Amino acid sequence: MLPPIIFTYSINRLVFSTFDFILGKIYYGIPVKLHDRLKIKFSVSCHEGILFGAVKAAVRFSAFYRPLILLFKINEMDTKTKNRKNTTAQTDILIHRVFALPADKIWQALTVPEYFKKWYGPKNFTCPYSVMEARKGGKYLNCMRGPDGKEYWGTGVVVEFIPGKKLAITDSFSDSKGNIISAAVYGMPGDWPRELLITFELQEADGATKLRLEHEGIPQEMYDECVRGWNESLDKLEENIK
Fold first, then answer.
1. 138 and 226: one domain?
2. Beta strand pairing call for 139-145 and 151-162
3. At a CB cut-off of 8 Å and minimum separation 6, what does 11 contact?
4. What are phi and psi of 234, to 5 degrees?
5. What phi-psi label fits residue 39: left (phi over 0), alpha (psi between -120 and 50 degrees) or beta?
6. Residuewise pLDDT in 10s, the chain (242 residues)
7. Mutual orientation of helices 4-28 and 49-86 as an angle, nearest 10°?
């Protein structure tokens, strides 16, 4: 039978070797000694005795291995969170722009159909029709026409109306009479909600206006295309609104 001190040392080395193998597999993919890579040395003096040696080994294990185990758990949680996000069908667009125009000009472009038609729609698109009741609870109906002549109608309700500062509207696909229809009718891929939300916020400073645009509920499949479409529309606003 091994003397107690030597037996304790052997058990400690066996425990550390086992965890080295397991953690080595997890973090490096091969059975390497993790404490060798980290230059961590574990030792139990033969003069420290059974109890003190075991306590010291446990403390050292907790100090050096626990952060890595926690890191593994955090990474695992982060992966699960990402997986949950990946199962979400919609996401939000957030765009910031600065225009060399006073806020009242930008507000006019957002709420007055005559000016709205000058910029709404991506590059090479036009807006042949636009009506809006510029007040909280008011309705609107817009039409975008593509270069191929295809029309895309949209409707909604004004849910927040702070003149010169903030406009929030619901956003739904519709027919030319304002009846809400599925995005699939227009051949749009993705899981579109029946109603999205668009928020415009304006902040004027030194004759220039900061615009914050948020479009909530965009399907992931259409995210990049919608971001591009909004930026091209805002480029047109900058060019055509004076």
1. yes
2. antiparallel
3. none
4. -70, -30
5. left
6. 444 444 444 444 544 444 444 444 444 443 444 444 444 343 434 444 544 454 354 435 445 545 444 444 444 444 333 333 444 567 999 999 999 999 999 999 999 999 999 999 999 999 999 999 999 999 999 999 999 999 999 999 999 999 999 999 999 999 999 999 999 999 999 999 999 999 999 999 998 999 999 999 999 999 999 999 999 999 999 999 99
7. 20
**Cα angle 91-95-100, degrees, rounded to a multiple of 5:** 165
The residue out of 85, 107, 125 marking a domain boundary is 85
Query: What is the C-alpha to C-alpha distance for residues 56 and 63, in angstroms, rounded to an integer?
Result: 10
Look up residue 1 and give its two tokens.
């039978």
Looking at the fold, whether 76 and 61 belong to one and the same domain comes out as: yes
Residue that has been written with the tokens 């005795």 in this structure:
49
Cα Rg of the chain, angstroms:
31
What count of other Cβ atoms lies within 10 Å of the Cβ of residue 38? 11
Domain boundary among 85, 107, 137: 85
Q: Which two tokens stand for residue 50?
A: 């059974």
Q: How far is CA 19 from CA 14, 32, 194, 206, in A?
A: 9, 10, 53, 64
| Domain ranges, residue 193 | 90-240
- Other Cβ atoms closer than 10 A to 101: 19
